[in-house]
Write a structure and sequence with these properties.
It is built from six helices and five strands, in the order ααααββββαβα. The protein is of the alpha+beta class and about 140 residues long. The strands form two sheets. A three-stranded mixed sheet has the order 4-3-5, with no helix packed on it.
Length: about 140
Amino acid sequence: MISVEEIVNRLREQGERLTLQRRMVLDVLCQEGDHLSVHHVQQQLAEQGRDLTETTIYRVLQWLKERGIVSQTDLGQSGVVYQVIGLRLHHHLICLNCHQEIELDDQVMEALRALLRRDYHFEPRMDHMAFFGLCQVCQDYHSE
C-alpha cells in the first residue's frame, strides 16, 4: 500500500507544491483507500474538524489526477469516484439493468494495453475503469 509520505515525496521530486488543502485530501484518500466521491472526502474531513468546500476538493482531486496520483472513474448511478493509484488496480463491470457491480482484476486489461501499444502506438492509462452492460442474470431474464 502506498503511503501519504511516498506520494508527498514523489510530488516534491516533480517540483510540485503541496498546500495544506492538497495534503488534507491526500490524507483522506490514503486513510480510506477505496472509491471516494468528492462528497465522501468532504464528510471525512468534516469528521476531523476540517472544512473544505466540494469545489476545493474537486480541484485538488483534478490536480492529483493530472499528476497521475489518483484515478477518476464514473460508476454510473454510483457516481464519480476517486482512488489513489497503486493501492490495488482493478476495474468494474456494472449491470445497466440491476446495477450490480462486479470487480474485474487488472490482469484482464493487459491484452488491451498491449494491443493499443502495438496497433495504435498509444500508451494507455487505464488506472480504474468501469464497463457497462448486462450481467448474466439480466441477460437470461431478457432472453426469455
